[in-house]
Design a protein that fits this description.
This protein has three domains: about 60 residues; about 90 residues, Urease, subunit C, domain 1, CATH 2.30.40; about 300 residues, TIM Barrel (Alpha-Beta Barrel). About 40% of the residues lie in helices and about 20% in strands. The chain has 17 helices and 15 strands. It binds zinc ion. Zinc ion binds next to loops. The site of zinc ion has 4 residues, from loops.
Length: about 475
Amino acid sequence: MAAWLRRTLVRHTAAQLKGQGIDKKSTQVKISLTDDTTSLLSSSKPQNVMKKMIAVFATIIPCLLFAQKTILHCGKLVDPQNLKVLTEMSVVVEGNKITDVQNGYTSGAAGDKIIELKDKTVMPGLIDCHVHMTMQQSPSAFTDKFKMNPADYAYQSISYARSTLMAGFTTVRDVGVVGGSTVNISMRNAINKGLIIGPRMYTAGKIISSTGGHGDVTNGLREDLLGDPGIDDGIANGVDACVKAIRQRYKEGSDLIKITASGGVLSMEKDGTGAQYSEEEIKAMVQTAKDYGMKVAAHAHGAEAIKRAVRAGVTSIEHGTFLDDEGIALMKQNGTWLVPTIIAGKSTADSAKKPGYFPEVIAAKAIAIGPKIQSTFGKAYKAGVKIAFGTDAGVYPHGKNWIEFIYMTEAGMPPLEAIKAATVSAAELIGITDKVGTIEKNKLADIIAVDGDPSTDIQSMGKVKFVMKDGVVYKND
Ligand SMILES: [Zn+2]
């Protein structure tokens, strides 16, 4: 019965569409057929089936002939490229793309859908360049890894993806997981297939670290459990292994590379700032990544590690806590991005004050390193270092990413520049300016709206009321 129906339905549809001059490969047709086939198959009598089929085609065909536009009436519209807020604008969306931006409130043709955002401030979907979509810090994080399987992390992360999107972040750069899991790559694929709701993801897959370094998942374990983790676990030492690790990440499906150039806070190692790769090793990784069309993001807190990574040609320095004047000059000279993650520094320092929240070795580093990120960011920004918005979501609860805007403005960055860092600049860092980052013709329809006006009150960034990603509305309060 099922096979008979599917054959008849496909043949019938193809013939009808050919008659209407419509390509049967249209995605819209595919989606409609899948949904309607399911409901048809639940019917048992052939007469009922035919009646339903006629009803289905009566609704499909007109939709295809007269593609409906969605018009957003924007009371205020942020143009982050030019650091301006425009008033009374209309944004026209067709399918998953922006097809026009017009002055005033246009009404469109009969059948077009109007979304009223006249009392809101509309802007491009936000982009967070430093998230960990498949983890969330908690007092049990260290012991969880002995109990949880990759599938447990995957299910747990579904809500993280949803909260990130609902907070207005329509694109994220996931800078990897420690250890041997590629749950983040699977998550990216699941979002792309529409299996779960979340932001458009670009992911590093597994973080690459040196033995005993920030990304060595066996740090702090009993001697017989230390083992000697290798490339499959994200550990590589020496030029040859580093080159192979990049190729392995490419094979696994990473979009970019994340390396740990220095020690870090949330790992069970004593030193949170020292250099953990030689310049030669980083150079080899950068050059190999370039061959495979990938950029390199370097986690680095200490001044020496930052300078080695910048000289070796990485695209971005993550955190950059102890960046010194020489490092600032080098970053400007090389056009290296700084992704500050102020909120991560502050929230880990706060958690470290709660007795027993972190193991002692982590708490000490969190208090010493965390609070310094904000002032370093302020200094780097004023000196003219390129800044892209990034928060380290997962180190604090997903969905609170917007608080970074407050910390950035506190450190001296004007609100519209902070929004530019999370749209235009973030898209430039990731390499997707042809797709997202601004609201203009031919870009993907990633559009959000907030209550209030963030150019005068940055707290508005926490009041996201409308979220559209790829032309689909996920939130409209
Ligand atoms: Zn991170």
